[in-house]
Amino acid sequence: MITTKLPDIRTDFPLLCQTSGDLAPIAYLDNAATTQKPQVVIDAMHHFYLHNNANVHRGVYGLAVAATQAYEAVRDKVCRFLNAADRREIVFTKGTTESINLVAQSLGDEVLKPGDEVLITAMEHHSNLIPWQMLCKRIGARLRVIPMDDRGALKLENLSDLLNDRTRILAMVHISNSLGTINPVKKIIQKAREKGILVLVDGAQSVAHLPVDVQDLDCDFFVCSGHKLFGPTGVGVLYGKKSWLERMQPYQYGGEMIKTVSFERSEFADLPHKFEAGTPNIAGVVGLGAAIDYIETIGRPAICYYLANLAEYALHQLREIDGLTIVGNAPSRSCIFSFTMEGIHPHDVATILDQQGVAVRAGHHCTEPVMDFFGIPGTIRASFALYNIKDEVDRLVAGLREAQHIFS
Fold it and tell me: Radius of gyration over alpha carbons of the chain, in Å?
């Protein structure tokens, strides 16, 4: 049975237990930027450095073998977590940004020619906009955009016209980091499939909020970051269909990604190692594996159900505040809320909330075109995770009312 409550897990996260002066423990509501780390993730990385620290894939001595086994075991874990068809379809990167850049740089010349088109959405993070913008500029292709409406929902009525005979690549965000919109990516992918268009899904936000099945989505690429999944910074995942990864050229060159080298030529390693040049973030990958274990122990259906109820409560409470305007009211939304407050700059609101022990983000959230669309310089963003509770929503609301009182 799925419940609206989760086990008492806040004590699993050391930072959430810290206090400052007379304040209650921090109400951390900036999870769209990065999540806090449970003790099991910290311990896994600590254990690796204490007991297993060695480089991977290169040594035959016991320590190196143990490190390699730990590293590759996480590849199997990620493969199961995303339901990839083959472990060779999982490439470790520094994060979502590097994963997108890898695809854009390695695949661009394979599929794009002058006059071709790349399609993105109006709500993309800069990381899923600029690489395609630069690629189109270099090749002479055209970057096109799926528009959105005033609710922050994609306008899909003319999607068939945008997915035309010149479209070669569709790159789209699963959950908007600045609006909270959950896009109907499976429906859009099905339309793209009818035209044989390659699809990349930015899952930086969705992978911690929703169960993800890359085979069911039928995307060609799916990218995500460990640090938004309760894992460490500096490690991420690129899932790519084996048929595409085999066609792609390496993104970086050097050690680890080669099979044989001479002064005349080089032969690259088999998948996935041809995309993992140099010494990887081994401890980070181990930490990512511990984070996935932690999530699966709780259960993703239970997490999704809990967050949906928390989002409903937060939405109701925020709408009760006069002068607060929520930016992004799509019918399908996540636990990410962006809003403005009449007569108060977002940075001032965030500063006052910080004095109350409530951590939120203020700014354009690396989505400047979104802010331009709504005609605002930025928003206050409160984003929730599985360890947040209704009491923290109440503290957020009290802090917002305090800000209004100060500026009145």
Answer: 22
Q: What CA–CA distance (Å, rounded) separates 299 from 34?
A: 20
21 token code pair: 């002066």
pTM: 0.96
Q: Does residue 272 have a cis bond before it (omega within 30 degrees)?
A: yes
Question: How far is it, in rounded angstroms, from Cα 236 to Cα 225?
Answer: 4
| 175: Cα within 13 Å, side-chain hemisphere | 22
% of the chain residues with pLDDT over 90: 90
79 noted as active-site residue: no
Determine which helix (DSSP H) or strand (DSSP E) holds 187, and give its type and residue range: helix 185-194
**CATH code for the structural domain at 42-296:** 3.40.640.10
Tell me how far CA of residue 181 lies from CA of 239, 329, 335, in angstroms.
Answer: 23, 8, 9
Render the burial of 214-231: b for 16+ CB within 10 Å, e for the rest.
beebebbbbbbbbbbbbb
Which fold, 10-30+299-407?
Aspartate Aminotransferase, domain 1 (3.90.1150)
Residue 397 clears pLDDT 50, i.e. is over it: yes
Query: Do residues 262 and 134 make contact, with C-beta atoms less than 8 angstroms apart?
Result: no
H-only helix segments in 6-154: 39-47, 62-82, 96-111, 130-139
Q: What is the pLDDT of residues 229-266, one digit of tens each?
A: 999 999 999 999 999 999 999 989 988 888 888 899 99
Active-site choice (79, 136, 219, 366): 366
Report pLDDT for 381.
Answer: 98
